[in-house]
């Protein structure tokens, strides 16, 4: 009796991964996608009413430089194009999305650090997270601001990880909780972080929370207190940003 024929699904998956890997290595695809993203961000920025709270946030933050800007994953898409008036270094992953994001970030005059964190120590080392941490630390010591997502990639959304807290401790720089929300948005509900795509012809709110300072001699309890404080500040800022758009989350 003949053996049953096995489905060819694994081969299809392998071919599909190979196809996307080739796309990710294509300079044409990277250039075209990056230009499209920049065009879209400019469209959104120019057609949105921008609200900043507090209104004097830039004047208040400028003397605090260098600082660490902490944002949630999923709220970062429009950030490079916002007329904040400050430049920074941002840690960006090395995949295709990261390559596109890096080009967009650099187009707006910012610098990039190519690495990403992980849900555990093994992932962090594999993705160059430790090198990225040291590069961000050096950037702060060179008086350059740094932007870092506060929650861990593909971990628990809107839960602050210790990475950004440790960066604040080692550098002595304050952490600035920042939230960005748009009235017109498309939410990718199946994404782990519920990424919100800002859309044109609406209102975008930028809310800055209270600065979080992490003592250099902080023990485990103090680090956890700072982590919880930043998480609370980011959640409050996010809620307020959505309220200001007139379309609450």
Quick structural gist:
With 249 residues, this protein is an alpha/beta fold. It is 44% helix and 16% strand. α2 packs across α4 and α6 packs parallel to α7.
SSE order and pairing:
Blueprint lengths: L8 H16 L2 H21 L1 E5 L3 H5 L6 E4 L17 E4 L3 H12 L3 E4 L6 H6 L2 H13 L4 E4 L12 H10 L3 E8 L2 E3 L8 E3 L4 E6 L11 H26 L4
Parallel strand pairs: 1-9, 2-5, 2-6, 3-4, 3-5
Antiparallel strand pairs: 6-9, 7-8
Provide tags for this entry.
249 residues; alpha/beta; Glycerol-3-phosphate (1)-acyltransferase; two-stranded antiparallel ribbon; 44% helix
Structure commentary:
This protein is α/β, with parallel strands linked by helices and 249 residues long. It has one domain (11-245): Glycerol-3-phosphate (1)-acyltransferase, CATH 3.40.1130. 44% of the residues lie in helices and 16% in strands. It has a 7-stranded mixed β-sheet with strand order 1-9-6-2-5-3-4, sandwiched between helices. A two-stranded antiparallel ribbon has the order 7-8. Helix 6 packs parallel to helix 7. The longest helix has 26 residues, at 220-245. The radius of gyration is 20 Å and the shape is globular. The termini are far apart. The model is unreliable at 120-128 (pLDDT under 50).
């Amino acid at each position: 009796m003949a053996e049953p024929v096995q489905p060819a699904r694994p081969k299809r998956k392998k071919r599909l991964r190979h196809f996307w890997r080739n796309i990710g290595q294509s300079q044409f695809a990277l250039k075209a996608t990056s230009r499209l993203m920049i065009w879209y961000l400019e469209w959104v920025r120019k057609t949105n009413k921008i609200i900043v709270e507090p209104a004097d946030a830039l004047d208040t933050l400028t003397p605090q430089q260098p600082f660490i800007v902490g944002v949630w994953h999923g709220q970062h898409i429009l950030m490079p194009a916002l007329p904040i008036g400050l430049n920074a270094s941002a840690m960006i992953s090395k995949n295709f999305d990261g390559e596109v994001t890096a080009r967009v970030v650099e187009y707006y005059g910012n610098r990039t650090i190519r690495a990403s964190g992980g849900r555990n120590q093994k992932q962090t080392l594999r993705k160059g997270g430790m090198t990225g941490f040291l590069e961000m630390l050096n950037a702060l010591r060179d008086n350059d601001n740094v932007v870092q997502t506060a929650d861990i990639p593909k971990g628990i959304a809107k839960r602050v990880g210790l990475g950004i807290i440790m960066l604040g401790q080692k550098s002595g720089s304050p952490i600035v909780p920042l939230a960005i929300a748009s009235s017109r948005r498309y939410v990718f509900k199946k994404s782990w972080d519920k990424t919100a795509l800002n859309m044109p012809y609406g209102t975008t709110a930028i809310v800055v929370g209270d600065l979080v300072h992490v003592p250099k001699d902080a023990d485990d309890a103090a680090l956890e207190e700072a982590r919880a404080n930043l998480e609370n500040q980011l959640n409050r800022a996010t809620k307020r940003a959505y309220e200001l758009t007139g379309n609450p989350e």
